[in-house]
Amino acid sequence: MNKKEMYRIEVQHNLKKLEMTCHDMASLLCGLGILVKSPYTTSHQVHAAYKRALLRFHSDRPCSVSDMRQQVEAEEKFKLISRMKEKVTYKQALVSFHPDRAWLGSDMHQQVEAEEKFKLSHMKEKVNNILSLNEASLS
Predict the structure, then answer these.
(1) DSSP string covering the chain
(2) Domain that holds residue 22
(3) Total structural domains in the chain?
């Protein structure tokens, strides 16, 4: 195992700890040292901080960093931010289209339960549509 791989494993381990403690994008960005304006942030402020983080940690960004460890950290932080964005986007989609929106907390059990209810309600809706089509075709 080369030095870069060893750095990557260490950095991934540390970032996994951070990811487990962060419940939203603002807390993740603060944990990565990106300034988010105030404790009561707006979605615009979080989005601006997200853009700054992408610029700061993007691997294609030309920089004078010759330290391999810092390069690996930047790559892994960029990946973490991207994963969090996907989670946030998915959660927002669930909130937008979910018939039972009461689960907005960060509790994983509540989220899984809400997703299952969401899937079940759509399956019931499809079954009812099929049954009504069958009844209409029999009449």
Answers:
(1) --HHHHHHHHHHHHHHHHHHH--SHHHHHHHTT---S-SS--HHHHHHHHHHHHHHH-TTS------HHHHHHHHHHHHHHHHHHHHHHHHHHHHHH-S-GGG-SS-HHHHHHHHHHHHHHHHHHHHHHHHHHHHHHH-
(2) 1-97
(3) 2
Question: Can you tell me which residue has the tokens 């950290």?
Answer: 73
pTM for the model stands at 0.61
Residue 70 and residue 52: Cα distance in Å, rounded? 17
Q: What is the CATH number of the domain that holds 17?
A: 1.10.287
- What does the pLDDT look like over 88-109, one tens digit per residue? 776 666 665 555 555 455 566 6
Residue with tokens 């931010």: 81
**Could you give the CA distance from residue 36 to residue 21 in angstroms, rounded to a whole number?**
17
Q: Are 77 and 97 in contact (CB under 8 A)?
A: no
